[in-house]
User: Which sequence fits this backbone?
């Protein structure tokens, strides 16, 4: 499964950005998708999760109320709407997908997209 992200960029504090991540490949089923981020010198952290069946979502405490994860089933795409951005949100954001093909589960990663929030 290939994941392609887009939507990163430079924004001032208080601004908004929307990230997109599309999954492509042959004969796979998406179980769930996640957004992670990694700031310089820090470990990669889980930001938001969406379970494909039912649309259950979960967020890191640091982004609750500001970020929204959503999905487009037909396009195998997820989005991360980021509002009220803060300088501490600056990081490379990675898309992650847990997929299944027959009896095999796979864990796929996107290439990452840079988000920079200026103060």
Assistant:
């Amino acid at each position: 499964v290939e994941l392609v992200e887009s939507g990163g960029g430079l924004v001032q504090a208080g601004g908004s950005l929307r990230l997109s991540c599309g999954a492509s490949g042959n004969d796979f089923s998406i179980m769930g998708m996640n957004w992670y981020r990694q700031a310089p010198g820090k470990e990669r952290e889980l930001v938001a999760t969406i379970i494909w069946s039912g649309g259950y979502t979960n967020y890191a405490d640091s982004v609750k109320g500001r970020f929204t994860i959503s999905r487009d089933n037909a396009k195998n795409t997820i989005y991360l709407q980021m509002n009220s951005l803060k300088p501490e949100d600056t990081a490379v954001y990675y898309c992650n997908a847990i997929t299944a093909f027959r009896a095999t589960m796979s864990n796929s990663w996107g290439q990452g997209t840079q988000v920079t929030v200026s103060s």
Q: What stands out?
A: The chain has a mean pLDDT of 96.
